[in-house]
Structures are given as structure tokens and as C-alpha cells.
Design goal:
Elements (H helix, E strand, L loop, with lengths): L1 H17 L14 H12 L4 E13 L2 E12 L2 E12 L5 E8 L2
Antiparallel strand pairs: 1-2, 2-3, 3-4
Length: about 100
């Protein structure tokens, strides 16, 4: 009986050590810039469904990074493309500007 109590105490102790209850963990910390592009595009086209996302290019100059993504959307029976360009500070990751432009 004494062995079972020790065994269960060790088992539950290890279980609690593996679970993190930190309030600092958020979903935003795991977001990629592609996720940000999809989110901003969905804000502009809320009824659309994202079919495909592709990074077109990125460029870093003087502490500023610009990334451009092409998203293929479906709204109703129409498929169309949208270019989403994100400009952000390279060191802090703070977004400076986001442009969502439909494909011509």
C-alpha cells in the first residue's frame, strides 16, 4: 500500500510538471507573417474562403522588412487573387503598414 501511495505521488508530480499554466502564452506568439496576411485579407473580404496562399517576395532594408503574399480567394462561385503586402520593423516585428490589393 505504501508503494502505491509513493508511486501515485510521483506520477501526479511528474504530470503537473509537464503542464504549463503560464498566462503569457498566446496564440499570437505562434503566428507567422502568412497568418497575418490571411487575417488581414479576411478582414477586407469576410465572406470569402482562402483557397491558396503563396509568398511572392520579401525584402529587408535599414531595419524594415516588406513581405508580399498572393492569396487566391473564392467568394460565391468566383475565384480571384489578392496581393497582401506587409511592412514591419525587422527588430521589433511591429507592423507599420498593410496593403490588400485585388489582382487586376
Amino acid at each position: 500500500m505504501k508503494k502505491w501511495i509513493i508511486f501515485l505521488t510521483v506520477l501526479y508530480g511528474l504530470t503537473f510538471l509537464q503542464v504549463s499554466f503560464s498566462s503569457e502564452v498566446s496564440a499570437e506568439s505562434n503566428q507567422t507573417w502568412e497568418d497575418v496576411a490571411v487575417y488581414e485579407t479576411k478582414k477586407r473580404y469576410p465572406l470569402s474562403q482562402v483557397l491558396f496562399t503563396q509568398k511572392i517576395w520579401d525584402q529587408t532594408k535599414k531595419g524594415r522588412t516588406v513581405k508580399q503574399y498572393k492569396l487566391t480567394l473564392r467568394e460565391g462561385m468566383n475565384d480571384f487573387g489578392v496581393y497582401t503586402t506587409i511592412t514591419f520593423d525587422s527588430s521589433t516585428g511591429q507592423v507599420k503598414k498593410i496593403q490588400v490589393i485585388p489582382e487586376a
